[in-house]
Amino acid sequence: MDVKLTSGTQEAIAFTTEIPASYHHLQLPGARRLLGKADFGTILFSEIATPWFTIWHQHYIVEKPGTLEATFTARVLDLHVVMRGHVRYQLEEIGNFKMQEGQLNMVCAPFLSARAFMEDVKEYTTLTVHFNRTYLDVYAPYFPALQQLLEHYDAGEAAVLSGANTSLTPEMITIIRDLLHNDYSGEVRELYLRNKVSELLLLSFTRIAPSSANASEIRLHQYDIDKIREAREYLLLNMEHPLTVIELSHKVGINDFKLKKGFKQLYGVTIFDFLLEARMEKARTLLTETDTPIHEIAFATGYKNVSSFTAAFKKRMGFPPSAMKRSK
Fold first, then answer.
1. Among 40-54, 79-93, 173-187, 288-302, whose mean pLDDT is lowest?
2. C-alpha–C-alpha distance, residues 217 and 67, integer Å
3. Is 50 exceeded by the pLDDT of residue 33?
4. Helices 170-180 and 186-206: angle between axes, nearest 10 degrees
5. pLDDT tens for residues 115-131?
6. Sheet harboring 3-7: ordered strands across?
7. Is 269 exposed, middle or buried (0-12, 13-18, 19+ CB in 10 A)?
8. What residue spans of the chain are helical by DSSP H?
9. Fold of 222-326
10. Domain 3-206 belongs to what topology?
Protein backbone atom coordinates (compact mmCIF):
# COMPACT_ATOMS: atom_id res chain seq x y z
CA MET A 1 0.00 0.00 0.00
CA ASP A 2 1.30 3.47 -0.88
CA VAL A 3 1.98 5.71 2.10
CA LYS A 4 3.86 8.98 2.40
CA LEU A 5 5.47 9.85 5.73
CA THR A 6 6.45 13.37 6.72
CA SER A 7 7.54 14.99 9.98
CA GLY A 8 5.86 17.97 11.60
CA THR A 9 8.01 20.27 9.46
CA GLN A 10 6.43 18.75 6.33
CA GLU A 11 9.75 17.28 5.24
CA ALA A 12 9.44 13.84 3.63
CA ILE A 13 11.18 11.17 5.67
CA ALA A 14 13.85 9.32 3.70
CA PHE A 15 14.42 5.65 4.52
CA THR A 16 17.48 3.46 4.04
CA THR A 17 17.99 -0.32 4.16
CA GLU A 18 21.35 0.17 5.87
CA ILE A 19 20.61 -0.61 9.52
CA PRO A 20 23.37 0.07 12.10
CA ALA A 21 24.38 -2.79 14.37
CA SER A 22 22.98 -0.87 17.37
CA TYR A 23 19.46 -1.68 16.08
CA HIS A 24 19.99 -5.41 15.55
CA HIS A 25 18.32 -6.27 18.85
CA LEU A 26 15.08 -4.97 17.30
CA GLN A 27 15.32 -7.25 14.28
CA LEU A 28 12.28 -9.34 13.39
CA PRO A 29 12.87 -12.68 11.63
CA GLY A 30 11.92 -12.58 7.93
CA ALA A 31 10.97 -8.90 7.94
CA ARG A 32 11.96 -6.20 5.47
CA ARG A 33 13.52 -3.38 7.49
CA LEU A 34 13.94 0.33 6.82
CA LEU A 35 15.49 3.07 8.95
CA GLY A 36 14.31 6.67 8.73
CA LYS A 37 15.43 9.94 10.28
CA ALA A 38 12.86 12.58 11.24
CA ASP A 39 13.18 15.91 13.04
CA PHE A 40 11.92 14.28 16.25
CA GLY A 41 14.19 11.21 16.12
CA THR A 42 14.54 7.81 14.45
CA ILE A 43 12.02 5.34 12.98
CA LEU A 44 12.76 1.65 12.51
CA PHE A 45 10.10 0.19 10.18
CA SER A 46 9.68 -3.58 9.69
CA GLU A 47 7.27 -5.20 7.22
CA ILE A 48 6.08 -8.80 6.99
CA ALA A 49 3.91 -9.55 3.95
CA THR A 50 1.47 -12.45 3.47
CA PRO A 51 -1.27 -13.10 0.86
CA TRP A 52 -3.97 -12.03 3.36
CA PHE A 53 -2.48 -9.13 5.28
CA THR A 54 0.67 -7.09 5.77
CA ILE A 55 2.19 -6.54 9.22
CA TRP A 56 3.95 -3.26 9.97
CA HIS A 57 6.03 -2.97 13.11
CA GLN A 58 7.18 0.58 13.91
CA HIS A 59 9.72 1.48 16.59
CA TYR A 60 10.27 5.18 17.30
CA ILE A 61 13.17 6.63 19.26
CA VAL A 62 11.93 10.13 20.10
CA GLU A 63 14.64 12.64 21.00
CA LYS A 64 12.26 15.59 21.23
CA PRO A 65 8.45 15.88 21.10
CA GLY A 66 7.22 15.77 17.53
CA THR A 67 4.61 14.80 14.98
CA LEU A 68 4.53 12.08 12.33
CA GLU A 69 2.15 12.60 9.42
CA ALA A 70 1.07 9.70 7.20
CA THR A 71 -0.94 9.96 3.99
CA PHE A 72 -2.42 6.72 2.64
CA THR A 73 -3.50 6.89 -1.00
CA ALA A 74 -5.26 3.51 -1.04
CA ARG A 75 -8.12 2.11 1.04
CA VAL A 76 -7.31 1.40 4.67
CA LEU A 77 -8.59 -1.55 6.72
CA ASP A 78 -6.20 -1.80 9.63
CA LEU A 79 -5.83 -3.26 13.09
CA HIS A 80 -3.63 -0.89 15.11
CA VAL A 81 -1.88 -1.71 18.40
CA VAL A 82 0.16 0.58 20.63
CA MET A 83 2.71 -1.69 22.28
CA ARG A 84 4.80 0.94 24.03
CA GLY A 85 4.06 4.55 24.97
CA HIS A 86 0.89 6.66 24.76
CA VAL A 87 0.10 8.16 21.34
CA ARG A 88 -2.41 10.86 20.45
CA TYR A 89 -3.83 10.54 16.93
CA GLN A 90 -5.64 12.93 14.63
CA LEU A 91 -7.37 11.12 11.75
CA GLU A 92 -9.03 13.05 8.97
CA GLU A 93 -12.79 12.25 8.73
CA ILE A 94 -12.63 10.36 12.05
CA GLY A 95 -11.30 12.85 14.57
CA ASN A 96 -8.96 12.84 17.54
CA PHE A 97 -8.37 9.96 19.88
CA LYS A 98 -5.65 8.74 22.20
CA MET A 99 -4.33 5.20 22.47
CA GLN A 100 -2.65 4.13 25.66
CA GLU A 101 0.10 1.55 25.87
CA GLY A 102 -1.39 -1.92 25.48
CA GLN A 103 -4.50 -0.90 23.52
CA LEU A 104 -5.82 -1.73 20.05
CA ASN A 105 -8.57 -0.71 17.66
CA MET A 106 -9.49 -1.11 13.99
CA VAL A 107 -10.04 1.63 11.43
CA CYS A 108 -11.27 1.79 7.84
CA ALA A 109 -11.18 4.66 5.34
CA PRO A 110 -11.25 5.18 1.55
CA PHE A 111 -8.01 7.10 2.07
CA LEU A 112 -6.42 8.39 5.24
CA SER A 113 -4.45 11.39 6.37
CA ALA A 114 -3.23 10.83 9.91
CA ARG A 115 -1.07 12.56 12.47
CA ALA A 116 0.59 10.86 15.43
CA PHE A 117 1.70 13.13 18.26
CA MET A 118 4.58 11.73 20.31
CA GLU A 119 4.77 14.14 23.21
CA ASP A 120 7.38 12.50 25.44
CA VAL A 121 11.08 11.90 24.91
CA LYS A 122 11.08 8.11 25.00
CA GLU A 123 10.70 5.04 22.81
CA TYR A 124 7.38 4.09 21.21
CA THR A 125 6.37 0.85 19.50
CA THR A 126 3.26 0.28 17.38
CA LEU A 127 1.96 -2.64 15.34
CA THR A 128 -0.37 -2.35 12.35
CA VAL A 129 -1.99 -5.21 10.44
CA HIS A 130 -3.30 -4.05 7.05
CA PHE A 131 -5.97 -6.52 5.84
CA ASN A 132 -7.26 -7.60 2.48
CA ARG A 133 -11.03 -7.06 2.66
CA THR A 134 -12.01 -10.67 1.89
CA TYR A 135 -9.89 -12.07 4.72
CA LEU A 136 -12.29 -10.67 7.33
CA ASP A 137 -15.50 -12.00 5.71
CA VAL A 138 -15.42 -15.23 7.71
CA TYR A 139 -15.55 -13.33 11.02
CA ALA A 140 -18.19 -10.74 10.17
CA PRO A 141 -21.35 -12.89 10.71
CA TYR A 142 -20.31 -13.59 14.30
CA PHE A 143 -19.20 -10.10 15.36
CA PRO A 144 -21.68 -7.26 14.71
CA ALA A 145 -19.08 -4.53 15.35
CA LEU A 146 -16.87 -5.95 12.57
CA GLN A 147 -19.86 -6.36 10.24
CA GLN A 148 -20.69 -2.70 10.76
CA LEU A 149 -17.09 -1.65 10.11
CA LEU A 150 -16.99 -3.62 6.85
CA GLU A 151 -20.25 -1.99 5.74
CA HIS A 152 -18.62 1.41 6.25
CA TYR A 153 -15.58 0.19 4.30
CA ASP A 154 -17.73 -1.04 1.39
CA ALA A 155 -19.59 2.28 1.34
CA GLY A 156 -16.32 4.20 1.16
CA GLU A 157 -16.77 5.71 4.63
CA ALA A 158 -14.24 6.23 7.40
CA ALA A 159 -14.99 4.52 10.73
CA VAL A 160 -13.47 2.84 13.78
CA LEU A 161 -14.38 -0.59 15.10
CA SER A 162 -15.22 0.60 18.61
CA GLY A 163 -15.62 3.91 20.36
CA ALA A 164 -13.49 2.51 23.19
CA ASN A 165 -10.05 1.03 22.56
CA THR A 166 -9.60 -2.62 23.54
CA SER A 167 -6.91 -3.44 26.10
CA LEU A 168 -4.49 -6.27 25.48
CA THR A 169 -4.62 -9.28 27.78
CA PRO A 170 -1.48 -11.28 28.68
CA GLU A 171 -2.64 -13.94 26.20
CA MET A 172 -2.90 -11.36 23.41
CA ILE A 173 0.57 -10.01 24.25
CA THR A 174 1.96 -13.53 23.97
CA ILE A 175 0.27 -14.01 20.58
CA ILE A 176 1.82 -10.77 19.28
CA ARG A 177 5.23 -11.84 20.53
CA ASP A 178 4.88 -15.22 18.79
CA LEU A 179 3.65 -13.46 15.66
CA LEU A 180 6.72 -11.24 15.46
CA HIS A 181 9.38 -13.64 16.72
CA ASN A 182 9.30 -17.05 15.07
CA ASP A 183 11.77 -19.03 12.96
CA TYR A 184 9.41 -20.57 10.40
CA SER A 185 9.87 -19.97 6.68
CA GLY A 186 8.01 -20.42 3.39
CA GLU A 187 4.43 -21.68 3.37
CA VAL A 188 4.66 -22.91 6.96
CA ARG A 189 5.51 -19.36 8.07
CA GLU A 190 2.55 -17.91 6.17
CA LEU A 191 0.15 -20.41 7.74
CA TYR A 192 1.63 -19.78 11.19
CA LEU A 193 1.19 -16.02 10.79
CA ARG A 194 -2.37 -16.48 9.56
CA ASN A 195 -3.24 -18.62 12.57
CA LYS A 196 -1.71 -16.16 15.03
CA VAL A 197 -3.50 -13.18 13.49
CA SER A 198 -6.75 -15.18 13.62
CA GLU A 199 -6.22 -15.83 17.33
CA LEU A 200 -5.56 -12.14 17.94
CA LEU A 201 -8.65 -11.10 15.99
CA LEU A 202 -10.94 -13.53 17.80
CA LEU A 203 -9.75 -12.38 21.20
CA SER A 204 -10.05 -8.73 20.13
CA PHE A 205 -13.58 -9.06 18.74
CA THR A 206 -14.85 -10.84 21.84
CA ARG A 207 -13.54 -8.00 24.01
CA ILE A 208 -15.10 -5.15 22.06
CA ALA A 209 -16.84 -2.80 24.47
CA PRO A 210 -20.54 -2.00 23.86
CA SER A 211 -21.08 1.30 22.11
CA SER A 212 -23.26 2.64 24.91
CA ALA A 213 -21.88 3.12 28.40
CA ASN A 214 -22.87 0.63 31.07
CA ALA A 215 -24.97 2.15 33.83
CA SER A 216 -22.77 0.49 36.47
CA GLU A 217 -19.57 2.12 35.20
CA ILE A 218 -17.83 4.66 37.39
CA ARG A 219 -16.33 7.91 36.21
CA LEU A 220 -12.55 7.63 35.79
CA HIS A 221 -10.34 10.70 35.57
CA GLN A 222 -7.01 10.57 33.76
CA TYR A 223 -5.25 10.29 37.13
CA ASP A 224 -7.32 7.20 37.96
CA ILE A 225 -6.60 5.62 34.57
CA ASP A 226 -2.87 6.22 34.98
CA LYS A 227 -2.88 4.66 38.44
CA ILE A 228 -4.86 1.62 37.27
CA ARG A 229 -2.38 1.11 34.42
CA GLU A 230 0.44 1.44 36.95
CA ALA A 231 -1.20 -1.29 39.01
CA ARG A 232 -1.44 -3.51 35.94
CA GLU A 233 2.26 -3.04 35.20
CA TYR A 234 3.14 -3.77 38.81
CA LEU A 235 1.20 -7.04 38.68
CA LEU A 236 3.05 -8.13 35.54
CA LEU A 237 6.51 -7.18 36.83
CA ASN A 238 6.11 -8.52 40.37
CA MET A 239 4.17 -11.70 39.80
CA GLU A 240 6.30 -13.70 42.21
CA HIS A 241 5.36 -11.34 45.08
CA PRO A 242 1.60 -10.79 44.72
CA LEU A 243 -0.12 -8.11 46.78
CA THR A 244 -3.67 -8.01 48.05
CA VAL A 245 -5.98 -5.51 46.35
CA ILE A 246 -5.73 -3.17 49.33
CA GLU A 247 -1.92 -3.41 49.35
CA LEU A 248 -1.85 -2.80 45.59
CA SER A 249 -4.16 0.20 45.90
CA HIS A 250 -1.87 1.71 48.56
CA LYS A 251 1.17 0.96 46.40
CA VAL A 252 -0.08 2.96 43.40
CA GLY A 253 -2.08 5.60 45.30
CA ILE A 254 -5.75 4.93 44.54
CA ASN A 255 -8.57 3.62 46.74
CA ASP A 256 -9.31 -0.11 46.50
CA PHE A 257 -12.94 0.33 45.34
CA LYS A 258 -11.93 2.50 42.39
CA LEU A 259 -9.03 0.15 41.60
CA LYS A 260 -11.30 -2.92 41.49
CA LYS A 261 -14.13 -1.29 39.55
CA GLY A 262 -11.85 0.71 37.28
CA PHE A 263 -9.64 -2.29 36.47
CA LYS A 264 -12.65 -4.32 35.33
CA GLN A 265 -13.96 -1.31 33.41
CA LEU A 266 -10.67 -0.74 31.54
CA TYR A 267 -9.56 -4.31 30.95
CA GLY A 268 -12.78 -6.31 30.91
CA VAL A 269 -11.57 -8.74 33.62
CA THR A 270 -11.14 -8.65 37.38
CA ILE A 271 -7.71 -8.13 38.93
CA PHE A 272 -7.75 -11.79 40.05
CA ASP A 273 -8.59 -13.13 36.59
CA PHE A 274 -6.01 -10.85 34.93
CA LEU A 275 -3.28 -12.03 37.31
CA LEU A 276 -4.27 -15.68 36.87
CA GLU A 277 -4.09 -15.37 33.07
CA ALA A 278 -0.74 -13.57 33.28
CA ARG A 279 0.62 -16.30 35.55
CA MET A 280 -0.49 -19.05 33.21
CA GLU A 281 1.00 -17.30 30.18
CA LYS A 282 4.31 -16.85 31.96
CA ALA A 283 4.25 -20.48 33.09
CA ARG A 284 3.51 -21.66 29.55
CA THR A 285 6.44 -19.66 28.20
CA LEU A 286 8.85 -20.98 30.83
CA LEU A 287 7.66 -24.56 30.31
CA THR A 288 7.96 -24.54 26.52
CA GLU A 289 10.94 -22.26 25.97
CA THR A 290 13.28 -22.89 28.93
CA ASP A 291 14.63 -25.75 31.03
CA THR A 292 13.45 -24.13 34.26
CA PRO A 293 12.30 -26.81 36.76
CA ILE A 294 8.61 -26.87 37.56
CA HIS A 295 9.13 -25.96 41.22
CA GLU A 296 11.02 -22.81 40.18
CA ILE A 297 8.27 -21.91 37.69
CA ALA A 298 5.72 -22.25 40.50
CA PHE A 299 7.57 -19.72 42.65
CA ALA A 300 8.29 -17.42 39.67
CA THR A 301 4.56 -17.16 38.96
CA GLY A 302 3.63 -16.36 42.57
CA TYR A 303 2.62 -19.77 43.96
CA LYS A 304 3.87 -20.83 47.40
CA ASN A 305 4.15 -24.50 46.49
CA VAL A 306 4.15 -26.83 43.49
CA SER A 307 0.82 -28.47 44.34
CA SER A 308 -1.06 -25.14 44.24
CA PHE A 309 0.61 -24.23 40.95
CA THR A 310 -0.13 -27.65 39.43
CA ALA A 311 -3.80 -27.49 40.46
CA ALA A 312 -4.24 -23.97 39.02
CA PHE A 313 -2.40 -24.85 35.82
CA LYS A 314 -4.43 -28.03 35.25
CA LYS A 315 -7.71 -26.20 35.89
CA ARG A 316 -6.77 -23.50 33.36
CA MET A 317 -5.09 -25.64 30.68
CA GLY A 318 -6.75 -29.03 31.09
CA PHE A 319 -3.50 -30.90 31.78
CA PRO A 320 -0.67 -30.69 34.36
CA PRO A 321 2.48 -28.63 33.71
CA SER A 322 4.55 -31.81 33.53
CA ALA A 323 2.68 -32.80 30.33
CA MET A 324 3.68 -29.55 28.62
CA LYS A 325 7.26 -30.00 29.84
CA ARG A 326 7.41 -33.49 28.33
CA SER A 327 5.97 -32.36 24.98
CA LYS A 328 8.62 -29.66 24.50
1. 79-93
2. 34
3. yes
4. 160
5. 888 888 788 999 999 99
6. 3-7, 66-72, 112-118, 87-91, 95-99
7. middle
8. 144-154, 170-180, 186-206, 222-237, 245-252, 256-267, 271-289, 294-300, 306-317, 321-326
9. Arc Repressor Mutant, subunit A (1.10.10)
10. Jelly Rolls (2.60.120)
